[in-house]
Design goal:
Layout lengths: L1 H31 L2 H65 L4 E11 L9 H13 L4 E4 L2 E2 L6 E4 L4 E4 L2 E3 L3 E6 L2 H8 L5 H8 L2 E12 L13
Antiparallel strand pairs: 1-7, 1-8, 2-3, 2-7, 4-5, 5-6
Helix pairs in contact: 3-4
Length: 230
């Protein structure tokens, strides 16, 4: 029994020694480990990762800024194009108005002429002189019997049929001349000393002038042809 206890005691002692030895070795490993180095390594890795994310962010932000700038450029180009288109449209409308290619409205006067009895009828020259006087006075639009007067308009007397043509269209009395412009200036251009209306009245023709704040003059319906403009 004693020998058995002694053997058991020795065995337990050896086991305890071995356990203590292993524990001591582990403590030694722990003591010899550089905790600061591990922390520094983790901090370095974190800094590296942070730097990597920062680089990625800067790259993405740079791309974002480029895209934003392109969008702004596209918007500005679109606005510029719209403004240019609008300006061209306005200039085109103004040009068409000056050429007589659009209907126009405004204040002015309406002159009505009719030949007197037993005297020489009103001629094409009478109408042409009156139109020129109105133009010189600043008329912005003129029509005779709804035929728009433009730069290429011809007012001619056809002797074979004893009638007048305007823009190639036959017109008959009474001659109604619509004029858009300053009412006072338009009236003064054809009345008074040397005025064509007063001259026609003196000769015995019938002539009236009416002021109107809402005159409509239709557009020129013919084709404007040029022979020498290239």
């Amino acid at each position: 029994m004693k020998k058995g206890k002694i053997a058991m005691t020795i065995t337990i002692g050896i086991a305890c020694f071995a356990l203590v030895t292993v524990m001591m070795m582990q403590f030694k490993v722990v003591n010899e480990t550089d905790i600061t180095a591990i922390e520094e390594m983790q901090e370095t890795e974190l800094k590296t990762e942070l730097a990597s994310w920062k680089t990625r962010y800067e790259e993405i932000d740079e791309q974002y800024q480029e895209v934003t700038q392109r969008i702004e450029e596209y918007k500005n180009d679109e606005v510029s194009n719209n403004e240019a288109s609008q300006l061209v449209q306005e200039e085109l409308e103004q040009t068409n108005t000056l050429l007589g290619l659009t209907d126009v409205y405004g204040e002015g006067i309406i002159i009505t002429l009719k030949s007197g009895k037993d005297i020489t009828p009103i001629t094409a020259d009478d109408l042409l002189i009156m139109v020129n006087a109105l133009k010189f006075a600043g008329a912005e639009a003129i029509s005779i019997n709804d035929e728009r007067i433009v730069n290429t308009t011809d007012i001619v007397y056809i002797t074979s049929g004893s009638f007048i043509k305007v823009n190639g269209q036959r017109i008959l009395e009474p001659y109604v001349i619509k004029v858009i412009g300053n009412q006072s200036h338009m009236e003064s251009a054809v009345t008074g000393t040397g005025g064509k209306v007063d001259e026609l009245l003196t000769l015995g023709h019938v002539a009236t002038i009416e002021k109107d704040n809402d005159i409509t003059i239709g557009k020129y319906n013919g084709e404007i042809e040029t022979k020498y403009i290239q």
